[in-house]
Amino acid sequence: MPYPILKKSELAPNTVMMQIYAPLATKKMQPGQFVIVRVTPNGERIPLSISGWDRDKGTLRIIVQAVGRTSTELINLNAGDFIEDVVGPLGQPSHLDRYGTCVLIGGGYGTGAIIPIARELIARGNKVIGIIGARTKELVLMEDDLRSICHRVEVSTNDGSSGTKGLVTDVLAGILKQEPVHMVTAIGPVPMMKAVSIMTRPLKIKTFVSLNAIMVDGTGMCGACRVEVGGVTRFACIEGPDFDGHQVNFDELVYRQKMYIPYEKKAMELCTCK
Ligand SMILES: Cc1cc2nc3c(=O)[nH]c(=O)nc-3n(C[C@H](O)[C@H](O)[C@H](O)COP(=O)(O)OP(=O)(O)OC[C@H]3O[C@@H](n4cnc5c(N)ncnc54)[C@H](O)[C@@H]3O)c2cc1C
Ligand code: FES
Known about the structure:
Rossmann fold, 32% strand, globular, Elongation Factor Tu (Ef-tu), domain 3, 5-stranded antiparallel beta sheet, 274 residues, alpha/beta, 17 strands, binds FE2/S2 (inorganic) cluster
């Protein structure tokens, strides 16, 4: 049965939020998990983080940034259209505990993914500070949503058009000078997650990153999502996507993410979705 898109709104150029009716997937959903969607009957399967859900209504919310063929086909759909498959929840929930002060850092679609984590950490008695990073003001996503949940939210933009001029690590460095931080979670582009992990490692602050490895089946059978964590091969789809940022081999992750670029370019060239 295809899955209806109930709402769609544009958050930034090439970036949309969608609310989808997928009651089975929402039943056991936990913060940090993801779904795999197939947009068309013959299309590829792509993983997307969950940015929110309503179990009573059977709806879930995703943030999609168009970067290639399938994500472009998806953002071209509108409310009233259908997605062929929505499979989930997949992956392990985030490490939710009572830490003390937590800093949650989101870049791009990662800001949507930290929202359910923030909500649950606050419910467990933590103080939660959110940091949103973007290149420029118009790419800052979900700021109002995050402000409505967190104790404090900071923004960084590369060009200084909103919040602090610089990177999320500049904001994090400031927070670390102001107060003790007991846990950091970063979700977004790999260079951002790597830089955050490098900053927190010498301070021994527990740091989680959500690894956006290439995934196919999402159930531990194909091996596409192999990542190296602490010198051991792990499958991001069933053992992650969250891992200890101090243990991740980010260089290997980037290498594997780029493996199919010639095929991805070809797929985009052949697509009528542009
Ligand atoms: C756990 C997880 C959660 C994610 N959450 C989100 C999200 O909430 N919103 C969002 O916009 N994006 C998310 N992504 C990334 C998203 O899956 C990719 O952008 C998408 O698959 C790109 O497919 P494409 O055909 O549009 O682009 P392509 O041109 O095919 O690929 C562009 C780049 O995206 C990556 N990619 C391609 N195929 C896959 C795949 N099957 N699995 C993972 N990465 C792939 C590769 O690095 C590739 O170079 C997530 C990825 C993972 C692993
Ligand atoms: S996506 Fe196939 S094993 Fe993880």
